[in-house]
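Notes to self, Transcriptional regulator, AraC family:
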Amino acid sequence: MISLPVPLFTAAVLAYLAVRAVLLADTSRMVVALVALCAVQSAVIALNQHYGLTYLAPVQPVAAAAIAVFAYLTFLANSVRPLQAVPDGLHLLPPLAVALCFFAAPQYLDTLLVMSFAGYGTAILVQLRRGSDSLALVRLEGSERAVYLWRCVAGALLLSALGDILIGTAILLGPDTVRPVLVSAYSVVFLLVIALISLSETVARPAPSEHERGPASSNSKTAGPQHDDPELLEKLETHMRSSEAYLDPDLTLRKLARQLTIPEKHLSASINQATGENLPRYINRFRIGHACKLMVEGSSVTAAIYASGFNTKSNFNREFLRLKGVSPSAWLANHKPP
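result:
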C-alpha cells in the first residue's frame, strides 16, 4: 500500500480546492492564486523533505514569503480597495529579498521570514482597527464576519512567525531528524488554515461594486464634512428613505459613499459618533423596519428577509433579535393586523 506524505496529500487537497474555485467562477482571482500558492508550497515541502529533491530548497522559503504577501494583498483587493501598481508593487520585494538571502546570507533567512509573516499579520490587524468600517468593499451584511475571518488570517500569519522561531529553537537543541517532521507538520496546518479561511464566501467574494467608478473616494483630497456634521446625517437619512438603498443586498461602504458623494471615512465616522453604531448595524435598522412592514402586510418571514436586503436568514434573525428583543415569529404574533 502506497502512503503519501501528509504535505503531498495537503497539496492535492489544496489543488482540488483551487480548481473547484476556478470552475465555479465565484471566487476572486487573488483568492485562487493564494490557494494555488499554498498548494505549491505544500508540494515543495513534500518533495524537498520527504523525497530528497533538495534542488527545490530555494523555492520553499521564497514561496513562504510570497504566501504572506499574497495573503495581505488578497485582503486589500477583496475587502479594502482595488490594488494599485504603486505602492502595491513594492510588496514584490520581500520574496525577492528572501531569494537573495538564501544564496548570499542564509544565516539571516529565518529572521527575514519571521519579519515577513509578523509584518503582514500586523499590517492586516492595523488595517482592521476600525472594525467593519475598514472593509469598504465587503457587503455590509457580512462585514462583521469578514473582520473576524481576516483577523484569523492575521493570527495565522503571526503564529507562523512564532512557529518559525520555535522550529529554529528545536532544531538547535534537538537532533537533525527533527527538522523535516516539525517543518512538515507546522506548514501543513498553516497552509490549510490560510486556504480554508480565504475560501470562505464572506472573504472570497467582494461585492460586485468593487470596481465601481464614482466621484467619492476614501482617498479624496477635497475637504469633507466633519465627523459630527448633522447635515451629513440628514442627507444620509433622506437618501435612505428616498432611494431605499438599504434594499440592495450588495451594498457596501464604498457604494453608499459614492451615492452620497461623501468620502468613506467621513461617512462611517459620522455614523459612529451620531448613533454609536457602525454602518452595517445602522443599515440593518432600515432593513429590519422594512421587513417588519412586509410581514405585517402579509409577507412570509422568508420572503421579507430577501426583500429587505438580507442575504442570509441567520443574519436576519440575529439582527432582528438585537433590535426587537424577540424572534420574528414572536414579534409577528403580537403585530398582526386585527
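- Residues 143-173 form the longest helix (31 residues).
- Residues 225-333 form a domain with the Arc Repressor Mutant, subunit A fold (CATH 1.10.10.60).
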